[in-house]
Amino acid sequence: MMQFLEQISTWLGASPIGYFAKHYEWVWPTCQILHFVGLVMLVGMVGILDLRMLGVAKGLSARPLNKFVRFGIAGFVLNIVTGVVFYAGDPLQYLHNPAFQWKMAFVALAGLNVLTFYATGMFRRVDALGPGDDAPLGAKIIATMGLLFWFAVMYMGRMLPYLGDAF
Amino acid sequence: MQQTPLSVFLRESGSVWGFPLVLFLHTAGLALLVGSSLVVNARMLGVGGELPTAPLESLFPIMWTGFWLNAISGTILLMASDPSKLLNPLFYVKMAFIAVAVWLMTREKKQLFGAQAGPAPRWLAVLSLICWFGAIVTGRLLAYYGKGTRA
Predict the structure, then answer these.
(1) Which of A89, A110, B36, B145 is least surrounded by CB atoms within 10 angstroms?
(2) Sign of the dihedral through C-alpha B21, B23, B24, B30
(3) Is the pLDDT of residue B148 over 70?
(4) Residue B63: what pLDDT?
């Protein structure tokens, strides 16, 4: 498994994306800025649905909040793209970095959490919530987990240079 | 300020519970403050237009929590950083963006929920988005240009 990941990493580092990330001085800071913009979009625009499930801003019906969530997904995509640029810029500083491994684990957990939301049909029950309605307990648990996982992703991202040696 | 025991600990301990933790808190505060403000601005610009605006008032305490978390963690980061940060014009541009953004926040609150609440002008939301973006850009650039820590 590790050998396979190392091969992919080496290939990515030698790819045009790797070249792009390493050879232009403006690429890294620009992607950093976009990574933080994506972070804010993701946490804010998905977080509002989580908060509604937890009973904050209860006067909002849930369905129209999906229009906000779309921007959150856009933020997530932005962060995958910029994240790949960072990774390609210096793959080996991430691959063996415990903070990076934890960060990816929490991204995966957040993904599983979203999957649970849809697969269990909880999504439909939340979608039907009108103004003032209380979300089911399952939805509240999913919302709490979602928020926790994203803040854990953020924590591990910040620890990249400290638990490991990424910059 | 650079010489207080806290500053020295943060700068020199190398512990992940020192400087890196404060850095994380600063990022978490950013997410709370700007993330919530983004939701209010998006609604003002017509996203989820069928939703009432009144319930969004409960996002304001979250924004203020993020603001104070960052005012405090930002001050600590500054104390633990290279003094040259204070000579960097980017720092003052960042502070100006934040000052205007926070002023806009209070204006939005008055417009949306105050005694004379009514449809809030869109320029408030547009300007707020510009200021937050400016604060993020200058904040990131401060970490990459100028000597000292990677805050």
Answers:
(1) B145
(2) positive
(3) no
(4) 98
Residue B57 pLDDT greater than 50, yes or no: yes
Q: Which residues contact A46 (CB under 8 A, 6 or more apart)?
A: A68, A69, A72, A73, A146, A150
DSSP codes of every residue in B35-47 = HHHHHHHHHHTTT
Neighbours of A56 (CB within 10 A): 17
Distance CA A70, CA A63 (A): 12
- The whole-angstrom separation of Cα A62 and Cα A64 is 6
- Whether B14 maps to a domain, the answer reads yes
Contact flag A162-B20 (C-beta cutoff 8 Å): yes
Query: pTM for this one?
Result: 0.92
Cβ of B51 and A61 within 8 Å?
Answer: yes
Tell me the pLDDT tens digit for each residue of A4-60.
Answer: 999 999 999 999 999 999 999 899 999 999 999 999 999 999 999 999 999 999 999
* pLDDT of res. A167: 63
Q: Does any domain span residue B151?
A: no
Q: Residue B75: which domain range? A: 5-144
Q: Is B45 near chain A, with CB under 8 Å?
A: no
Measure in Å the smallest separation between the Cα of B35 and chain A Cα atoms. Answer: 4
pLDDT digits (tens, 9 = 90+) for B109-125: 999 988 777 777 899 99
| pLDDT of res. A154 | 97
Rounded Cα–Cα distance for residues B136 and B90 (Å): 11
Q: Are B73 and B25 in contact (CB under 8 A)?
A: yes
Of A40, A57, A59, the CB nearest to B31: A40
> Best interface-test mutation with B: which of A46, A78, A133, A158 has the largest number of B CBs within 10 A?
A158
B105 with B88: CB under 8 angstroms?
A: no
